[in-house]
């Protein structure tokens, strides 16, 4: 573990696993003011048998500082500064999950020559995911009875006024994700996470986020993964990303929600291993009709 200074006001908390003589992968976690590196690093840790994994808390999250200056563009720039601090001018492979997938995708567009292999899981190339997510919520709201459409919109689009509101909304909405086996696990997770409503508000995406016309700038071999039952980023958004990148494979994982790498770890980690190692192409999978 290390704290890496990328500028005077920001130190990023970094963890690693795997041998130094293996090809490096940087993992960019999801969540905006509601997460840190831990869950995604744990999920991807089996890959350390073949690669040298690095994961970090993004600016203002977990044990990293600098939240007062956080913005989407700043997080993308942070990833470049971290890459330089760790690897100099060496290109790297990146795995980005959810919001971290948007950061990773934008990074690969802004710094195409610095990314060899790119994996994005459950994300979108534009802000247009919000209204379809609200529609999916209406279909599935019975599984999260303590929620409202207004609560979902605030989580995805406008933010909350206090840390407590954000914590309570996260707890109420989590059954939609299908990641917690029972209420006790859900309660434990909600109690242990550091929630930062101000950070969440500062990172809520707006209509200015639109990478669709810039996807052709991605030079990296790319793997796009999504769960067939993802309610936030429905498969249409992964298809859109895959269709815009010249060297890209699409993996739609059946019977999985937003975190396909958690719902089907053997399938997804195997696909990532093969993709980053560059030995086997990942077959395209057809998404179900919505």
TrEMBL record:
Q: Which GO terms describe its molecular function?
A: peptidase activity
Q: Which residues form the signal peptide?
A: none
One Pfam family from the record: Abhydrolase_1
Using the record's annotation, list all stretches that form the AB hydrolase-1 domain: 24-262
Q: Check the record and name the InterPro entries matching this protein.
A: AB_hydrolase_1 (IPR000073), AB_hydrolase_fold (IPR029058), AB_hydrolase_sf (IPR050266), Peptidase_S33 (IPR002410)
Q: What Gene Ontology cellular component terms go with this record?
A: membrane
Q: Which GO terms describe its biological process?
A: proteolysis
Task: Kindly state which keywords UniProt assigns to this record, in alphabetical order.
Answer: Hydrolase
What's the family?
Answer: Belongs to the peptidase S33 family.
What is the protein's name according to its record?
Proline iminopeptidase
Organism of origin: Chelatococcus asaccharovorans
* Record lineage: Bacteria, Pseudomonadati, Pseudomonadota, Alphaproteobacteria, Hyphomicrobiales
């Amino acid at each position: 573990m290390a704290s890496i200074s990328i500028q005077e006001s920001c130190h990023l908390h970094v963890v690693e696993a795997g041998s130094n003589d293996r090809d490096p992968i940087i993992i960019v976690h999801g969540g905006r003011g509601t997460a840190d590196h831990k869950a995604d690093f744990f999920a991807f840790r089996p890959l350390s048998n073949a690669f040298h994994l690095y994961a970090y808390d993004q600016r203002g999250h977990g044990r990293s500082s600098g939240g007062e200056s956080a913005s989407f563009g700043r997080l993308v720039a942070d990833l470049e500064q971290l890459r330089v601090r760790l690897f100099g001018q060496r290109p790297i492979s990146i795995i980005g999950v959810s919001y971290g997938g948007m950061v990773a995708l934008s990074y690969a567009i802004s710094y195409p020559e610095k990314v060899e292999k790119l994996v994005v899981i459950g994300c979108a190339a534009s802000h247009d995911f919000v209204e379809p997510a609200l529609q999916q919520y209406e279909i599935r709201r019975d599984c999260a009875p303590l929620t409202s459409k207004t609560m979902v919109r605030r989580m995805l689009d406008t933010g909350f006024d206090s840390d407590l509101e954000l914590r309570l909304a996260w707890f109420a909405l989590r059954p939609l994700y299908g990641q917690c086996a029972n209420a006790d696990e859900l309660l434990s997770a909600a109690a242990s996470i550091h929630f930062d409503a101000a950070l969440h508000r500062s990172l809520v995406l707006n209509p200015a986020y639109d990478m669709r016309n810039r996807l052709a700038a991605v030079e990296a071999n790319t793997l796009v993964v999504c769960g067939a039952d993802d309610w936030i980023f429905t498969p249409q958004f992964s298809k859109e990303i895959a269709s815009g990148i010249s060297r890209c494979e699409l993996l739609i994982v059946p019977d999985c929600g937003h975190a396909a790498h958690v719902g089907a770890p053997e399938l997804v980690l195997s696909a990532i291993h093969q993709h980053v190692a560059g030995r086997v192409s990942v077959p395209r999978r057809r998404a179900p009709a919505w």
